[in-house]
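I have been asked to look over a protein record a colleague put together. Thanks in advance; the entry in question is below.
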Amino acid sequence: MTVEAIWSDLEPGTVLSKDLHEQVLATRPDVQVFVQRLALPDTSEAQLIHSARPLETDSVTGRTIPDHQVIVAVCDGFGYIEYAGEDDFVQSVGSPDSPGWTTTASNYFHPGTGVPLTTLVDLIDEFRTTAARPTSVRWRDVLGG
């Protein structure tokens, strides 16, 4: 199974997109290289789209969209992941030392949701192989804080 990752390089010191990137994550080494790229300065968060998940029709636009939204990022040495599906809108429970962080799209990762980068690789790879929300970490409801 594969995951498509989409992210941007940013104009240095801004949240303005400079270059859009897409990469297919078909193997664990692909995931490892991808996380290393996310850790580079001036790199935005990424959206992950799993090829084996169903598509649905957006009620507002009528466009076909994935039935899930997975956002991943690297900031200050921590990896961040948010999973939104039919019944979930959650962020990983991570290190209490990880800071809160606002993405370029104004999504907010709560303090304590950042995980070690090796764990982020594990979570993305688990999502890649199962097409489901990873079970190797605890999750907390985004709206509940």
Notes: The helical segments are 28-38, 117-130. The mean pLDDT is 89.
